[in-house]
Amino acid sequence: MQVLALSLIATLCLQAASPFEQLVTQVRTATALQCQLRSSSGEDIRIVATRGGKLRLESKQRTVVSNGAIVWNYVPGQNTVTIAPVPSSGNATFDRVVFQLLERYRVEQQSSGRVILVPTGEPVYGVRRLVLDFRSGRLRALTIEATGGSEQWQVRSLRFNPAVSAEQFEFTVPVGAEVVDMR
């Protein structure tokens, strides 16, 4: 009975939280995420990431894969693959970037469907404003306003803790590709 009561209280608390607060909770507790985005210019990106620096980012222009130790950056238009170690600082991993945004940005404005985040100090990666748009309680779009301009992204799907296989973080160099090995 106690478990049922605690579960009900937790559910009610979660429902009372704003969509942004729910998103922050999910990001902080997730061990993996998978999302598909479409830019205002029509570029589609698929991202799968886990804690510990594992990442797979795919678009028509490039594929970036990291197994946590090595990063492969494949540019099909040039048929080149750059292979490099993950920086020892670990600051460039996907999960670290997300946590820096959560730690170093504050809510400037919040309404029922929109949250605007601004840096508390120096912008992370030049991001001066981050606008999150929610519909039906879900993140549906984001606008990144950075030093070099603004980019809008439609969030086509966002899943936390999906089943992720180790093979997603492996990369096989395409036959005939030029390799720049910086290890």
Structural summary, described in words:
The structure is a single chain. The longest helix has 15 residues, at 2-16. This protein has helices spanning 2-16, 19-29, 94-104, and strands at 32-39, 44-50, 54-58, 63-67, 70-75, 80-85, 105-110, 114-119, 127-135, 138-146, 149-160, 178-181. It is built from three helices and twelve strands; from the N terminus they run ααββββββαββββββ. It is of the alpha+beta class and 183 residues long. It has a single domain, classed as Lipoprotein localisation LolA/LolB/LppX (outer membrane lipoprotein receptor (LolB), chain A), CATH 2.50.20.10. It is globular, with a radius of gyration of 18 Å.
CATH topology: outer membrane lipoprotein receptor (LolB), chain A
Number of helices: 3
What is the fourth-level CATH superfamily? Lipoprotein localisation LolA/LolB/LppX
Q: Rg from C-alpha positions?
A: 18 Å
Quote the beta fraction. over 45%
> Gap between N and C termini, in Å?
57 Å
